[in-house]
Amino acid sequence: MLWAPVIVLLGAWCTGKDTPLDPALLAQGASSQLVVTQPLSVADPLGTTVKLSCALSSGYSIGNDRVRWYQQKPGSAPRFVYHYYTSSDQGRGTGIPARFTISPDTSNNLWNLVISGVQAEDEADYYCYTWDGKQSVAAHTGQRTPLLPPRAL
C-alpha cells in the first residue's frame, strides 16, 4: 500500500467586512488588532482525518464571532469552504463535500476545520478569517510557502 501524504499550507486573515474573501486582501500585509494563528502546514496520509485549527486572540470567542474558512489552490481564487457562528448557524459552501466540518473547541477558543477521509484534491492553502465590525484591513500571520510534492517528503 502506498502512503501518499497530503500537504496543506495554512494562512490566516482577519477582515472587517462580512463579505466573501476578496482575493486582493491576500496580497495585503496590513496589521490589525485581531490576531489569528494557525500552524503553517500539515502533512497527513490520504484517507485520514485532518484537523486545521484557527485561534483568535482574547476578546473573540465562539458564539460571539463568526469564522469563515477558505480554500485556495494554485492559480485559482479563494473558494468559500465553511462558516461557523453557533451550532445552529453554520454551513458549507456550494459544492463542498460533507467530509468538511467544523469542530469548535470552546475551552481553547479554536475553530477547527475537520476534513474526514482527506483526499489528494484537498491539497491547498486554507485560510480562516473573522471580523469585529470595525476593521476593514486584512492581517496575515505567516509567510506563505510553495506546496511540496509528496515525493519531496
Q: Give me the CATH superfamily.
A: Immunoglobulins
Helix content: under 10%
Q: Number of folding domains?
A: 1
- The backbone outline, from C-alpha atoms, is globular
Q: Main beta sheet, described? A: 6 strands, mixed
Helix and strand content put the structural class at mainly beta
Q: What is the terminal-to-terminal distance?
A: 17 Å
Question: How does this structure look, described?
Answer:
The protein has one helix at residues 23-26, and strands at residues 5-12, 36-37, 41-45, 50-56, 67-72, 79-86, 89-92, 100-105, 110-115, 125-129. It is mainly beta and 153 residues long. The strands form two sheets. The chain has a six-stranded mixed β-sheet, with no helix packed on it. A four-stranded antiparallel β-sheet has the order 2-4-9-8, with no helix packed on it. Strand 6 (79-86) and strand 7 form a beta hairpin. The longest helix has 4 residues, at 23-26.
Topology, element by element:
Elements: E1 5-12, H1 23-26, E2 36-37, E3 41-45, E4 50-56, E5 67-72, E6 79-86, E7 89-92, E8 100-105, E9 110-115, E10 125-129
Parallel strand pairs: 1-10
Antiparallel strand pairs: 1-3, 2-4, 4-9, 5-6, 5-10, 6-7, 8-9
Could you name the key traits of this structure?
globular; disordered C terminus; 1 helix; Immunoglobulin-like; mainly beta
